[in-house]
């Protein structure tokens, strides 16, 4: 079992839990027997509050290899309210990515059509208007470069497509560092992927107040930019 202290709890109340998901852990239950975030948080609440089988629901997800800030619902009503915000695109998500090479412009917008292959769980860029293809759009801004050929960028998703950042960055010839699936041999020799959900903003489902949570990545390719994040260890 993964130790309870390995997942950072940023905020909790009777409606929601806001956490930093570590890379390598699934956002919700899968066919695998490995621990996932929903099961982990149920165990956390059971130990802390003595509840048997407490309610915890995932309302959004991060790919298994991606870490970062996530919100989980503690009641069905909270789950519905948060899901409506996500569907209405009023939840703001920002990411940090370490990419191989450097985008041509210091900031810009990437717009592609993506098609997901359900059998292989891989998405690809396809011509506009392709049957079952979906428009994907993101904006990025370069934050720092290093002398090893890597660039740190901030990314804001304007759409939420399957593996969107990973696919679009690879298509732009700046694959996410450590991303073997889409970057192949050009992704660098990293165990972890250089993609992290650093900021999440939403309206609290109970109080209706706007809330914003942030976290800094402290592992993998992000250690190349330790001076930017003031990383002193691999916590």
CATH superfamily of the largest domain: Pseudouridine synthase
CATH topology of the largest domain: Pseudouridine synthase
**Number of spatially distinct domains:** 2
Q: Would you tell me the structural class of the helices and strands? A: alpha+beta
Helical stretch tally = 5
Low-confidence stretches: 231-235
Beta-strand residue fraction: 25-35%
Q: Architecture of the largest domain, CATH level 2?
A: 2-Layer Sandwich
**SSE succession:** EEHEEHEEEEEHHEEH
Termini gap: 19 Å
* Structural Rg: 18 Å
Shape: globular
Which whole number gives the mean pLDDT? 90
CATH C-level class of the largest domain: Alpha Beta
Estimate percent helicity: 10-25%
Number-wise, the strands total 11
Largest sheet: 11 strands, mixed
Describe the structure.
With 235 residues, the protein is an alpha+beta fold. The chain folds into 2 domains: 4-92 and 200-215, Pseudouridine synthase, CATH 3.30.2350; 95-186, 2-Layer Sandwich (Pseudouridine synthase). Helix content is 17%, strand content 34%. The protein is built from 5 helices and 11 strands; from the N terminus they run ββαββαβββββααββα. Strands 1, 2, 3, 4, 5, 6, 7, 8, 9, 10 and 11 form an 11-stranded mixed sheet that branches. It starts with 7 loop residues before the first strand and ends in a 6-residue tail after the last helix. The model is unreliable at 231-235 (pLDDT under 50).
